[in-house]
């Protein structure tokens, strides 16, 4: 059953730094690497700080608030696993801490997305083992 | 003077027919293209002593074994997607300039149509993704349903269109010019099928903002280029074309698009000043440009990265026939990936070579002396060749 789930959902491989990132998501916490030396936040996770070269970091908790930076709307099924989801958009969300990540804005249809739209993280438990960080519109 | 400038020449180019549907393997077609390029140069397979590939497979070993190369002295592979063909030529030129090889083959083959193409990339799962960006893709993009170029380049393009008010007529002019040029090229897949602005506007949306004719073709076929030294080139069959400048460049970071601080700065932005400096030329000196045209909007970004126009202005620049034959700066005189075939951009090198040899007949750029070929691959890796006769 678990294997079938994997085939259908295109789950992130739970290994290395991705395992760490998604493990926090499973606890409904959005955390990013923050360099222990220079203090810079980063995503996607890296072994070392591209700015100062330090190998030391903490998984710092994000406010979860950000805004839409860009997006890729998908009107045709590009992936069989997402055929039922079209139309959808993979948004780039810029968090308050400065990092950007690919995700969804779950309550805004693709044709209503705007750059700068304020959003806040929500957690989608897509399987018993995997939770994806997604976003919803942040009401003023 | 830069030690690579004018040290290596393109002495042979060749290709298979460009089709949709073939019974021949990619390797078979690459070998046929290589044979054709060798004929063009007046050389034999056994003259090759270096091979640089621009895709993970088939490997140098497969190619050398079939060609019967008695002493392969140099091999390398560039794996930066659509930027790899031009980058492979840079590497080949280096091998020749340093005396590591005398005759280098750079082949590209792709059954993009019969093999399922990029459209099938997502369907085949994360394990088939190129290692250059596959990790980021499988860990952070694919779980959200993003897996193919038309999607990740929509990230760049959506932001580009937001930052600059790019008119629809910009990408349309790119599509129309490419198709117009293909009508003058007997090898072009789209020969006999002209495209009007109205056709462009009415075409279905693939992924916002890309309409059908913003997207390159998926075809079957192969192309090959033979390099030799500047000393030897004049003794071969055709007019030598000199590699006057070459460079590659990479966006920061190359393996993740959302995380870029300078979001619209592509690899070609880094490569351009290096290649032009090596060649000791200015961008104003060019007689033509062959631009990696995976999508029309990416052509606009590349024109800006080349410094041909300022940021956000390419959509205006390309209008009114300026990039068509007879215009100020003809682009993709063969039709490019949009209208000739998708051979990962090596066909752009073949066309630039023939333009500089002045073999192009009805689509010849008058008195062509100097041109460039760009590459654009993966998440925005870039490469650039400056070629002169």
Q: What structural category do the secondary elements of chain A indicate?
A: mainly beta
Name given to the CATH architecture of chain B = 3-Layer(aba) Sandwich
Question: How would you classify the quaternary structure?
Answer: heterodimer
In angstroms, what separates the terminal alpha carbons of chain A?
Answer: 43 Å
* Helix content range of chain B: 25-40%
Percent of residues of chain A in helical segments?
A: 10-25%
CATH class of chain B reads Alpha Beta
Quick one: which chains have the greatest interface? A-B, 37 and 36 residues
Order of helices and strands of chain A: HHEEEEEEEE
The number of domains of chain A is 1
CATH superfamily heading of chain B: Thiolase/Chalcone synthase
Total of helices of chain A: 2
Please report the distance between the alpha carbons of the first and last residues of chain B: 18 Å
Total strands of chain B: the figure is 11
Give the total of beta strands of chain A: 8
State mean pLDDT of chain A (0 to 100 scale): 93
Your description of this structure?
The complex is a heterodimer of chains A (140) and B (389). Chain A is mainly beta and 140 residues long. Chain A has one domain. Chain A is 14% helix and 35% strand. Chain A is built from 2 helices and 8 strands; from the N terminus they run ααββββββββ. Chain A has a 5-stranded antiparallel β-sheet. A 3-stranded antiparallel β-sheet of chain A has the order 2-1-3. The model of chain A is unreliable at 1-7 (pLDDT under 50). Chain B is an alpha/beta fold. Chain B has a single domain (8-114, 216-388), classed as Thiolase/Chalcone synthase (Peroxisomal Thiolase, Chain A, domain 1, 3-Layer(aba) Sandwich). Chain B is built from 12 helices and 11 strands. Chain B has helices at residues 26-41, 60-67, 84-97, 131-141, 149-163, 169-182, 197-202, 267-279, 296-305, 314-317, 336-339, 346-357, and strands at 8-15, 50-53, 74-77, 103-111, 205-207, 210-211, 220-229, 241-249, 288-290, 370-377, 381-388. The chains are: A mainly beta (140), B alpha/beta (389). Chain A binds chain B through residues 9-13, 18, 42-44, 50, 69-76, 78-82, 85, 88, 90, 92, 99-104, 110, 115, 130, 132, and chain B through 119, 122-123, 126, 136, 138-148, 150-152, 154-156, 158-159, 162, 205-208, 253, 255-259, 263.
């Amino acid at each position: 059953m678990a294997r079938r789930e994997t085939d259908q959902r295109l789950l992130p491989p739970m290994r290395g730094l991705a395992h760490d990132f998604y493990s926090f998501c499973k606890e409904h916490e959005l955390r990013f690497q923050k360099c222990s030396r220079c203090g810079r936040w980063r995503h996607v996770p890296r072994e070392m700080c591209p700015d100062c070269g330090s190998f030391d970091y903490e998984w710092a908790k994000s406010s979860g608030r950000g805004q839409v930076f860009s997006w890729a709307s998908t009107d045709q099924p590009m992936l069989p696993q997402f055929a039922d989801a079209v139309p959808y958009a993979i948004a780039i969300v810029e968090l308050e801490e400065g990092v950007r990540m690919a995700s969804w804005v779950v309550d805004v249809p693709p044709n209503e997305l705007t750059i700068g739209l304020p959003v806040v993280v929500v957690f989608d438990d897509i399987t018993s083992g995997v939770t994806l960080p997604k976003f919803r519109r942040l009401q003023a | 003077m830069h030690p690579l400038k004018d040290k290596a020449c393109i002495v042979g180019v060749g290709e298979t027919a460009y089709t949709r549907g073939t019974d021949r393997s990619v390797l078979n077609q690459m070998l046929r293209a290589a044979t054709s390029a060798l004929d063009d140069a007046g050389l034999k397979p056994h003259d090759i002593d270096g091979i640089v590939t621009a895709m993970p497979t088939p490997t140098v070993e497969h190619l050398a074994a079939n060609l019967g190369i008695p002493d392969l002295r140099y091999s390398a592979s560039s794996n930066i997607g659509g930027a790899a063909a031009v980058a492979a030529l840079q590497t080949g030129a280096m091998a020749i300039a340093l005396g590591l090889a005398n005759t280098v083959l750079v082949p590209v083959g792709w059954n993009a149509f019969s093999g399922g193409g990029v459209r099938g990339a997502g369907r085949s799962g994360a394990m088939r993704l190129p290692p250059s960006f596959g990790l980021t893709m499988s860990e952070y993009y694919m779980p959200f349903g993003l897996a193919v170029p038309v999607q990740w380049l929509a990230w760049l393009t959506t932001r580009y269109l937001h930052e600059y008010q790019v008119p629809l007529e910009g990408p349309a002019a790119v599509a129309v010019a490419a198709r117009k040029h293909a009508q003058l090229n007997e090898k072009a897949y789209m020969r006999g099928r002209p495209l009007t602005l109205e056709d462009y506007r009415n075409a279905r949306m693939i992924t916002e903002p890309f309409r059908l004719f913003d997207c390159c073709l998926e075809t079957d076929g192969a192309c090959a280029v033979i390099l030799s030294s500047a000393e030897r080139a004049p003794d071969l069959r055709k007019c030598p074309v000199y590699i006057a400048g070459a460079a590659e460049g990479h966006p920061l970071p190359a393996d993740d698009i959302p995380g870029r601080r300078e979001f619209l700065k592509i690899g070609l932005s880094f490569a351009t000043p290096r290649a032009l400096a090596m060649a000791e030329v200015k961008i104003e000196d060019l007689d033509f440009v062959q631009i990696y045209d995976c999508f029309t909007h990416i052509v606009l970004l590349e024109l800006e990265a080349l410094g041909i126009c300022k940021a956000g202005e390419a959509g205006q620049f390309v209008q009114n026939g300026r990039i068509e034959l007879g215009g100020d700066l003809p682009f993709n005189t063969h039709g490019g990936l949009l209208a000739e075939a998708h051979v990962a951009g090596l066909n752009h090198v073949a066309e630039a070579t023939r333009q500089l040899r002045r073999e192009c007949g009805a689509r010849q750029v008058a008195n062509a002396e100097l041109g460039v070929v760009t590459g654009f691959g993966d998440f925005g890796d870039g490469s650039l060749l400056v070629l002169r006769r």
